[in-house]
Amino acid sequence: MAYRHLNVEQTNAPASLSRRDFLRLHVSEGKRVLELSCERLFMRYQDAQSGVGRRQVSNHDDVMPWAQQPTGFDTPTLDELFAELERQLAEADELCVLEPDWLNGGAFGREVGARVEAFERRGGHVAFGSFSPPSVSNGIMES
Amino acid sequence: MAIDPLKTVGQNTPRIDAYERVTGQATYTRDIKLPGMLYARVLRSNVPHAMIRRIDTSKAEALPGVRAVMTHETHKIPYGSGSISGGRQYSDAHKDITTRLRYTFNDHVRYVGEPVAAVAAVNRHVAEEALQLIEIDYEELPFVLDVEEAIEPGAPEIWSGGNIAHDSENRQQPIGGRTGDLEAGFAEADQIFEDRFTTQFVQDAQMEPRSALAHWEGDKLILHTPTQGVSNCRHDTARDLGLEDHQVQVICQYMGGGFGDKNGNYYFDLIAAAFARDLGVPVMVELSRKDDWLATHGRWHTVQDYRVGVKDDGTVTAIQLNGLSGMGPYLRRSGNVAGMDVYACENTEKSILPVHTNRVVSGNFRAPTYPQGYFGIESMMDEVAYKLGIDPVQFALKNMVRPTETKQFTNFTLDQCIEQGAELFDWANRWKPEPGSGEGPIKRGAGMAFMMFNARLGASSAILRVNAEGRYTVYVGVTDIGPGAKTTMSMLAAEELGVPLSDVDIVWGDSDRCPYSVGESGSRCTMMTGYAVVEAARDLKRQIAENGMPQGDSVLIASATPAPTTNGKLREGFGAHFVEVEVDTHLGDVRVTKYVTVHESGRILNPLPALDQIRGAVIQGIGQALTEDLRYDSRNGQPLTSGYYWGRHLTHLDVPQIENVFIETDDGLGPYGAKTVGESGIIIAPVAVANAVYNAIGHRMRDLPITRDKILEVVA
């Protein structure tokens, strides 16, 4: 039972599954299928737009006036967020857009919609579906 | 100031998840079961201070059913949330420079209860059995439990360089500062009083013992853990594991209380994550009640030396405080001591040294810096009032902080709280001008105290959407630590939208499915996240007015991240407590016979849980005054009183009916003028009780808790 020191960056994810925030990538019949959770992307979009995490000072009620200001969270900017989406789309063959009702209207829908259309124009296959987060029932989580 | 009644807000509203909670349908972290999951238990140091010379896990590893054993030799994971200088948990820059970094497992163990190994096994029983098979050879070191002894020359060094905690730049400097001209203040005084007050370590004692369930999807960690803030816990955990924030999802759907003990992440979150990563299956780490008591944190104990200058007419002219705070071996929070700013005196000096000892770690507990500080300052001032022959209520009204040109408040009701409380309590008849003057062995007395607590504003986010069926859904990153945040957020949305509460759903407690939230600490959830809900609702109403209700599959989505300010004004919640006690001078027993509180917390959004919060906090405060204590055996550094029974935590049956009045106001800030509630009730409960004991027996009790032996010692 030899143990290594935990070093996440050196470990390899299972080849069939990769998950990045609002995206889930798996390989099916040799094709790289990307699931896009619009709900989760919208949350990150909201955080990126507000920038609140980047300027967060403290979440605690014990603030020391003499202490230095902390650095805040690793909240991406809007540009970084959509650049990541584009990068992931560039490597996918199929795209499954989950909870598409989050794309209704507004700047968020236009931004995401434009990238989905671009993916389709490049020959990618797009499907729409509803995402079912793991449900917990009677204490048993069904993954 | 009268407030306009509202339709939903302000109505007694049961928690929207009450049924699930009381019928056992609510799924807490420990209730979750995932296919193939393992259970982990943590082995803890049984010595207060030692170096681990050798640790042999071979027998544990050989036990059938054991899947992995983890120690400092196998895993070196920084645990940043528990080690940062300066009391800030989320400053990554500080984490980078601190010279006192704590790891999940340390070969230098510094308190009884410190994690030294963990076992993952097929079930919790095998994991526990395996812990017994781990052999550790300790090189025991001298230990120190007392804060004053810890800073004496030659004291055992818990950290290289001495036992005074480091600040954010690795300096050993006191917390505090000066205002006005202290020397001039003392020169102006007719009399100067000095006294010492000390407070004990008390555990947060939340109902739900800690646990953490981790599993991975590729390089993404999904962490179920009872936390007071999913956003902050996510960031903490990502930082400690060397991940980016988006690689961690923190979920907390139900939790059984927090009281500050569940701020940020904890080492067992990291243990669960590491086991799950290495073994490729979900792993649940569970803490026992004793683990929870001795290996999380509680309120820091203090030594406070006051010097107060006062004129013969009762005007306080100078206040000086020198203090020590016992932080345990790792600095999790600041160690600050609050309370002096509730007095108007402008000539002040405060100097607090946070000190390391070989006791359990100290950290946030409901108003982290306040009850111990208010016990010191208001015991001191109560004593001064008696010495000058002034009624404590009149002394309070004379010396309490008041609005000035340079110190403006968004609104101010402290004087109303005191005056109304005195009247409701019948202070004039219950208080004895001559303390200890009652007849017979059972002596009655009355005490009072007053407080203010910051009701700060700040940024947080909320998202709100409506579908064609007219269902509204609020997305907020709250976890509902007990006061009913889910209900409050839903009520705010319903109120602003003008729809029934039953039309509003809520998504909460999931860092991937909710926007950033400030979390639930500092009594700020309602003021910050609640205000974001109101702003999002206003945005949604505007969209509905412009576009009409959505049709078919379409929805309307609104979001808000307001960052309101007070424009330089102080925004405070105010309160006053009045207590009557009976002291049995033969047995040393203290019994609280009447308790009246008056609080101004702005508009009360939901009176039912607001009152519960005041009552619960007062019970905790009475416990801190009279019974609760984590005692240690000074000969061997072993903790003696863990758990609810030995810790002597009070229940509703131990206290009288607590009468509370809210003075409702609306200063135009926060959601409909709401201010802080959750922490306010505990702040002055210990000192109000202590002052009542003095009035009853004529002896000042300077050391908490006021136990029978201490009473008997002074009345003998």
Question: Quick recap of the structure?
Answer:
By secondary structure, chain A is α/β, with parallel strands linked by helices.
Structure description:
The complex is a heterodimer of chains A (143) and B (716). By secondary structure, chain A is of the alpha/beta class. Chain A has helices at 38-50, 78-90, 106-121; strands spanning 17-20, 23-28, 31-37, 94-98, 125-129, 135-137, 140-142. Chain A starts with 16 loop residues before the first strand and ends with a strand. Chain B has 716 residues and is of the alpha+beta class. Chain B has 3 domains: 32-141 and 211-286, Aldehyde oxidase/xanthine dehydrogenase, a/b hammerhead (Aldehyde Oxidoreductase, domain 3, Alpha-Beta Complex), CATH 3.90.1170.50; 370-455 and 571-715, Aldehyde oxidase/xanthine dehydrogenase, molybdopterin binding domain (Aldehyde Oxidoreductase, domain 4); 458-560, Aldehyde oxidase/xanthine dehydrogenase, molybdopterin binding domain (Aldehyde Oxidoreductase, domain 4, 2-Layer Sandwich). Chain B contains 19 helices and 27 strands. In chain B, strand 11, helix 7 and strand 12 form a beta-alpha-beta unit. Chain B is globular, with a radius of gyration of 26 Å. At the A-B interface, strand 1 and helix 1 of A face strand 3, helix 3, helix 7, helix 8 and strand 22 of B.
Which structural traits does this protein have?
heterodimer, A: 143 residues, alpha/beta, two-stranded antiparallel sheet, 3 helices, globular, disordered N terminus, disordered C terminus, B: 716 residues, alpha+beta, 7-stranded mixed β-sheet, 5-stranded mixed β-sheet, 27% helix
